[in-house]
Amino acid sequence: MKLKFWCFMLMVALLPSVNAQVTGKTKPPKHKTTIRKKFIDPANMDISVNPGDDFFEYANGTWIKNNPIPDNENRWGSFAVLRHENTQKLLRLLEEVSRQSVTAPKGSIEQRVGDLYASGMDSLAIERLGYSHIKPDLERIGKIKDLNGLINELAFERVNGIVVLLFGLEAVQDDKNVSKYILRLSQGGISLPDRAYYLQNDKRSKSVTDALKTFIITIFRLNGCSADEAAKNAGIVYNLEVALAKAQLSRVAMRDPNVIYNKFLVADFVKVTPHLNWTALLPMFHAPGQDSILVSQPSFFKATDSLLAVTPVENWKILLKWGILRGASPALSSPFAQAYLAYKNVLTGEKTQLPHNERVSHTIDEVLGQLLGQLYVKKYFSPAARQYAVMLVNNIKIALGDRIKRLDWMCPETKEQALKKIRAITLKIGYPDKWETYDGVIIKRDDYVGNIRSLLKWRYNFNISLLGKPVDKTRWGITPQTVNAYYSETNNEIVFPAAMLQFPFFDLQADDAVNYGGIGGIIGHEIIHGFDDKGRRYDANGDLRNWWTKSDADKFKIRANQLVMQYNNLTVLDTLHVNGKLTLGENIADLGGLSIAYEAFLKTKQSRSAKVIDGFTPNQRFFLSWAQTWRSSERPEATAQNILKDPHSPDKHRTNATLTNISAWYKAFNIKPGDKLYKKPEDRTRIW
């Protein structure tokens, strides 16, 4: 779950765990159809490639060749196509409801969603306004006289829905007492996606930092600065961001939840950051009365406090102005948006912007998603899809339990705790039972920027209002129309929105091999996140607690390190390799998830048949469906960025590398010694 704020364009029901039994009959409800769909289409494959040399290319090569990346995208494949199709559905809904909203009752779903879309589609007003709507922010920052004024501004921005550059502050579940909410501070302060860009001197990193500097200069010039002043401002901003990047923890270090779990008494943390008096600050952030606080990276806050003491206030004012300008630039008039696009072109390779209506749709999904979600679910979601998905999840949970019982490296004591955790996993499919209402937010048909600010202000204050209240485990971290899924360690739950239950991941008309290899593999992936290098540290209740024997934990680490080494050796771009430590959790989830999905598939009637469909056996269709799930191509610039910040391996590698460790795949496609992907049985990694 990731909450995004104003910067960079803001770019189901709680079901009880069902103790379903695997019957071997998992056919979906029958529907009339006139043309049989090819769920595994040979026309998308490149059968000239030996599957044992490059299974990803064998399964997807022709589709990738015939589907180049659109200019306004940095990657294109199964997820991107489905997201695009989903956006078109949302646009049809938004167009319809924007017409209805003129006469809809004030405060209704139709009025608020429709008027927000109408306000965002008034592109003439956006051009006319230029950057006038953020001038009050820039003027307010300009009046800051001292460090106290600077700190007051940070609080003002945060509670009013404006991005705060220096740090994150939010209410979260206490990892070691998940029944309670606690305030958490986290590192921030940089514009680029990862600290590594500022710390590395290679050609690729330098091209990105040069693009950032150009972006800063251009934006300040558009704000009325002279060329010399804009260049000076860019130097100040960049140097401050370098200092903040040096103070940040790496993404690999932060994979250990114990490293980022640091609980302080507020009074004690004030001693760590003497220039940031949290006793006085927290009421300003609308969080009074807190005796304790979680700090994800104490060393970052200590370094930032020192920077506050030695850096002139005028320099901080420039950084804050940059934060306002940077965050708003994609939604400002054309010159600002074009400057942002030029920067993004170097960062991700995208050549053009998405159409205006799609950008507005994405923003509405971000800030008013649960109102839009109610309209989406009503029109597009099938209850039968939910029923089938529940059955899949429970079959896959049973398969994982069976595999754990057979593990030869885990002792009975740890197995008992693992099985308890599996039984406790909660499932959310489709949409929430209880929707967010956005109480108090007034949406105006003629004030897009004001609407967005109001919604972001509501979101922050709603989040902070959770402090002191019982934890509500019915809440969702993503909207029903999101093409994604997640596992929550603190809730021990998996969440599959309505939008994920579509082809190529899932189809009610598809055979079991396709559904188990597609959405089944993803379901397994999310379940295994509860048992990856991070998730395994949380118990059945969701508390961060060591429930492993030392011997079993050591054996797990040995197996996990085999995956680290395997992925470290995978070359992505020229000298770039996959970061095996950063991607470890996702790689474990891929391997374990596909393994348990396959074991669940073996209990279906289809798996025991020899029936060939479109030229492929049931087992072959299972693995081809998995490969089809990750079908994609990506711009080199985006790949280079993702290697630094994305905990997922590139799609080609997560397809091929996972399969090399699954013996059933070798048998299904007759993979032999001499094939490039072949691994000896004793070299294949198995964890779950």
| Largest pleated sheet | 4 strands, mixed
- What Rg do the Cα atoms give? 26 Å
Structural class: alpha+beta
Mean pLDDT over all positions: 92
Plain-language structure description:
The chain is built from 27 helices and twelve strands. It is of the alpha+beta class and 688 residues long. It has a domain of 194 residues: Neutral endopeptidase , domain2 (Neutral endopeptidase, domain 2, Orthogonal Bundle). A hairpin with a 4-residue loop joins strand 8 and strand 9. The protein is globular, with a radius of gyration of 26 Å. The N terminus is likely disordered.
Give me the secondary-structure topology.
Elements: E1 13-15, H1 55-66, E2 75-77, H2 78-100, H3 109-120, H4 123-129, H5 135-142, H6 147-159, E3 167-174, E4 177-187, H7 196-199, H8 203-222, H9 227-247, E5 263-265, H10 266-272, H11 278-284, E6 292-295, H12 298-310, H13 313-328, H14 334-348, H15 356-367, H16 369-380, H17 383-406, H18 412-424, E7 426-430, H19 448-464, E8 486-488, E9 493-497, H20 512-517, H21 519-528, H22 550-568, E10 571-573, E11 576-577, H23 584-601, H24 618-629, E12 632-634, H25 636-645, H26 651-659, H27 663-669
Parallel strand pairs: 4-6, 7-9
Antiparallel strand pairs: 1-7, 2-12, 3-4, 5-6, 8-9, 10-11
Helix pairs in contact: 2-3, 2-15, 3-15, 5-13, 8-9, 8-14, 9-13, 14-25, 15-16, 17-18, 17-21, 17-23, 21-23
